[in-house]
Structures are given as structure tokens and as C-alpha cells.
């Protein structure tokens, strides 16, 4: 499938702008997204290391003075996208959103370093990048876990990356929609509305955003005053892995790792508090409403990716993972199909997402090699049959969302070309 490898490269280059890459080449996402850029950088690293590093550098150019890396950077302000830069009304040097996204940069950078020869100027650049990533992680530790529990909160569903997941249904229902909301969605004009979040979801997203805007996204105030505050299993798994990878990077460059090491220890000690021994499952915590959230989301298995040091838990996760949507043609569905919240075609409520499969494939490699190979094979299969799309039906592989989707192309390159 050499022509598809070339097509994946062309997809990334076709979506590339000045130093950053759009998630797709249509009007759906006309800006730079945080975790998209991480995956995209990994894709570039297979054929243009300088583009990979530039992608990360451009994202970090938008880092706030307090350390936060926004989930969107608006390099081009002439778009119909909502919420646009004026709706957020914030940013440091570059117009941005006022919230963040899953911190995957340390993990991606480690992957890139592990498989590339790095020259002297690139090494100097990478050292600067690592210092910025460290500041970003310290921002999470300070402002998203002020009670020092070892587990960080997200303050908007968009921060998770899996925007309309059923995980957020209960906490979102408690959000009182702002009166006289005025905004115009563009996403459901570009893409079939049946595949996108509902209008009521958007009303709540905008309400939460407006509340955060009213306090100028002050991280000291936001933790308490946000209308949404959830400790999510998937997000914390990504952060645990990222912290471990950051320690590796700090070590490599003789930088201080004590603070991050200390937090990893705290996380390991407390992560199992999110495990219900009676139900034998993990749950997320709605801190705002003091409720446990039990949703069979594929993101609950990201703990495998975090390399949690508990064989018993890992074996249980793998056993459950094998039952997640084993009857369907394609896996993994974002929500277990027998759950009442499952919707085959609606964004994060059922479709297969390549980045989720990638996290799980990586997490299985040193725990169940046979299953990891199967996940890799099935993930490559859906892309080679259907193309580089945003998400797919688990029933028949129907592609949905954006075409020419950057992270699908990027992760395809990693799945096909990574020899480790």
C-alpha cells in the first residue's frame, strides 16, 4: 500500500499552512488544534523532521504566560468558525481559546526522539520545547489539581477532546443554559447534523465558555467557578503517560524532574480510587455535583496506554476490552454498543476514532502482543478500505465527519512505518 503512504503524506502537506497544519482541508476546523498537532507532528516525523518540530513549536508559540497551551490557536482570524477568536477574546501573542486539551506533546516528542537521528540545532530546539512542556504540565498540577489528589480536572467537555461523549451527559444536564444566547454554528452546515453534537449540547458548551470568559479564564478562579468540573479516567491516563514520558525527556537533557516524579507517585497512589471494586469498573468523577460517572467509553481503556503498574487491573481491562464491541465489523466504538447512550453515527457517542485505537494499540504492546497486533491490523484495514476520515461506523466502516483528516493520515504513517 505504498500509494496510501504517499497519500497520507500528501494529506498532511495539503492541510499544512505557515508552520502549522489544519485538522482537515474544509471549513470544519479552520485553525490549529492542540492534540491534533501532536499526532500530526508524529506523522511528519516519518518524512520531514523539521516540519514535525515546527508543528510543535508553532503550537507552543501560543502558550500562555502561566503555562497553559490552548486547545485552539487562531492564526487566521478570517473564518466563519464558531466559537471564533472574538468569542473567546483571549490569547498570548496568538488569538486562542481559553481552555486546553489532552497533553500528548511529551509522549509524541519521546516517540519522535526514539526513532530519529537528531542534529545539534534540532537538539537545542528540542531542549527549549521540553522546558515549555514541563511548564505546561506544572500548570495542570497547580491549577487543575489544587487539592493535590494526583488527578487533574477538565473544566469544559471540549478539553477532553471527546466533546459530546455520554460521559458528560449528567454533568451537562446540570448546566443552566444562559438566557438569550446568540451564536451561529457552522459545523452542522459543513457536516451532516446527524453526525454532530446536538444544539442543546452547543448551548451548554457556549454557556460554560461564557462563564469562563467572564472570569478571564483565570486558572485560580476557574477550578471552583466553572459550571463543569470532571476528573476523567481517559484524560488522567493520558496525563500519567505524558508525565512518565516527560521524566524520560528531562532525564535525557539533565533537567530537573523531581516535581514531575513526585506527581507521578501521587497519581499512582490515587488512581485506583477511581476503581469500583464491586462493579469491577473504573468511573469518572463529577466534582461539581459530587457524583460518580459510569459510562462504558473506550477512553476508560487509556489506562493501558498509561502503563499502570498493576497486572491485575491490566488483565481485567484487557478482558473487558475484548468484549467492548467484539460483535461488530470494526473496533473500537467510542461507546460500548449495548449501552443506552450509544449512537452509531454521532461524533463521540459511537463511531470508531483512529486516535483511540492508536492509544490502545500502544498500551497493549507490552501487555498482550497478540491483541495489539490485531488492533493494529484492524485499524490499518479500516483506513485502507475507507480512506483518511475523521471517524467511522463500527457496523460497516462508513466514513463520517471530515475527509482528508490529518491525524488519521499521521497515525496511519506511524502504524505502517514504525518498526518498534
Q: What can you tell me about this protein's structure?
A:
The chain has one domain: Glycosyltransferase (Alpha/alpha barrel). The chain contains 18 helices and 9 strands. The chain has helices at residues 2-15, 34-44, 49-61, 85-88, 105-115, 120-143, 157-160, 169-173, 187-190, 199-214, 219-225, 233-252, 258-270, 302-305, 311-321, 354-364, 369-386, 406-417; strands at residues 32-33, 72-73, 230-231, 275-276, 281-282, 284-286, 291-293, 391-392, 399-400. Helix 2 packs parallel to helix 18 (406-417). The chain starts with a helix and ends with a helix. The model has no long low-confidence stretch (mean pLDDT 96).
| SSE succession | HEHHEHHHHHHHHEHHEEEEHHHHEEH
Mean pLDDT: 96
Termini separation (Å)? 20 Å
Query: In order across it, which strands form the biggest sheet?
Result: 3-6-7
Regarding CATH, which class?
Mainly Alpha
Strand content: under 5%
Q: Work out the count of structural domains.
A: 1
Provide a count of the helices.
18
Oligomer: single chain
Rough outline:
globular
Major sheet: size, sense and barrel closure? 3 strands, antiparallel
> What is the β-strand count?
9
Q: Which CATH architecture is right?
A: Alpha/alpha barrel
CATH topology: Glycosyltransferase
Tell me roughly what share of residues is in helical segments. Answer: 40-55%
Radius of gyration: 20 Å
Q: Uncertain regions: pLDDT < 50 for 5+ in a row?
A: none
